[in-house]
Write a structure and sequence with these properties.
Length: 414
């Protein structure tokens, strides 16, 4: 069975990264195996860094020297995992005592995958998820106060996700005495894996803001494990995570993937910059108030052409009709009566004294305002002067060729 591993981490909105991840392939019981671990440090900048680093280094040491030498019993593997957790706990406690780092500690979640089976262990609230082609489910159980309430039936899982106390741990590495280490499955059983599946380990920076359905969707909708992990980190930060985000994945076989199902997402670092500084708005060039949309220009030209055609055919049009037609189109021009002037704020409507919807004044006392676009009004009057015929007694006819039809007509004035 092909085994693939991948780890990734991002500082997120924090100043430093107190998470650590480890993944490697090794020999276990004479077979190929993969191990993965995630540690989430706590206790301050330097202290949290160091605690997670000690835990990851202990896992690396056991992976390279202890696990390959085990004779082949599942019970011995379980015991070796427990010893590894307790050794990391003791080293962290000793470092904190010698360097006066009170409160220093870390979570730790660990998984080993081999031919057809797995074991998972944890201390704290870093998690492991099992993902195949049909589902994504959580394997570990958090060591936190809200999880204790959920276990006792005093709180629902949905309320636990929103609780302000969800990060209060009841168990973690860095204690003076032995810690609690949960191994899954229980009762000396192997976890059975599908031909194509993966174990996803993560800190609470991910699972606190990304649900199981989204994890599965990204793992199946991207081309590679690396791209899926990068997308998950980006989604966690975009959804509001302010913590470090760390992921380690061990894949057995190959999950069914369709890269077309998930759109490309910005990188986690790009999302961090957007949240810190805000998205950069593109520069918008303001449109002059006198610039009309193209359809209004076309309508105006169409009216001019219609008037010219009527005059060319000898139809007598009065000045009043011409002015009404041109004024109608002029109202469509920005600044005219029919156009919305976005350059000036709308005049507020006084509220009704009875609290009802405001009613416009039907009998205004002020005279009607002149058109705002004086250039449009002047152009209308000029066109009227050009197109409208003079009274018959003063008309001086001059034959002129119509440029459209090529025929002579007597009604055109110059």
């Amino acid at each position: 069975m092909k085994l693939t591993i991948h780890t990734t981490t991002t500082t997120g909105l924090r100043e430093t990264n107190q998470d650590r991840a480890f993944a490697a392939q090794c020999r276990l019981f004479g077979q190929n195996a993969a191990v993965a671990a995630v540690a989430d440090g706590m206790g301050g900048h330097k202290e949290g860094d160091k605690a997670a680093e000690i835990a990851a280094a202990t896992v690396k040491e056991y992976t390279e020297s202890i696990f390959p030498s085990l004779p082949g019993s599942q019970a011995e593997l379980r015991e070796a995992i427990r010893r590894m957790f307790q050794e990391a706990n003791r080293r962290i406690w000793e470092y904190a005592r010698q360097n006066n780092c009170e409160g220093m500690g870390t979570t730790l979640v660990f998984a080993v995958v081999m031919e057809g089976r797995y074991l998972v262990a944890n201390s704290g609230d870093s998690r492991c998820y099992y993902v195949n082609n049909y589902e994504c489910r959580q394997l570990t159980e958090d060591h936190s106060r809200v999880q204790e309430l959920v276990r006792k039936g005093a709180m629902t899982p949905e309320a636990a996700k929103r609780s302000p106390y969800r990060n209060q741990l009841t168990n973690s590495l860095g204690e003076p005495n032995d810690i609690q280490v949960d191994i899954f499955p229980e009762n000396d059983l192997w976890g059975i894996i599908d031909e194509d599946c993966c174990l996803l380990l993560c800190s609470d920076g991910l699972h606190g803001d990304v649900d199981e359905e989204t994890m599965s969707r990204q793992l199946h909708g991207t081309k590679t494990l690396a791209q899926a992990c990068e997308n998950l980190m980006s989604l966690a930060i975009r959804n509001g995570s302010t913590d470090n985000v760390t992921i380690a994945v061990a894949e057995a076989g190959r999950l069914a993937r369709d890269p077309k199902k998930q759109p490309a997402l910005p990188t986690a670092s790009a999302v961090v910059q957007q949240r810190k500084h805000g998205p950069t708005a593109p520069a918008v060039t303001p449109t002059p108030a006198s610039a009309a949309p193209r359809w209004r220009q076309v309508a105006l030209y169409a009216v001019f052409a219609l008037i010219g055609a009527l005059l060319a055919t000898g139809v007598v049009i009065g000045q009043q009709e011409i002015q009404q037609a041109i004024t109608w189109v002029g109202n469509l021009w920005p600044g005219g009566n029919g156009a919305e002037d976005t350059t000036k704020p709308a005049t507020p409507v006084e509220p009704s004294p009875r609290g009802k919807s405001p009613v416009p004044d039907r009998h205004p006392t002020a005279p009607p305002a002149e058109p705002e676009n004086k250039a449009t009004a002047a152009a209308v009057q000029e066109l009227i002067g050009e197109l409208a015929p003079s009274p018959p007694k003063e008309k001086k006819l001059r034959r002129q060729t119509n440029p459209r039809s090529g025929k002579d007509h007597p009604n055109k004035q110059r």
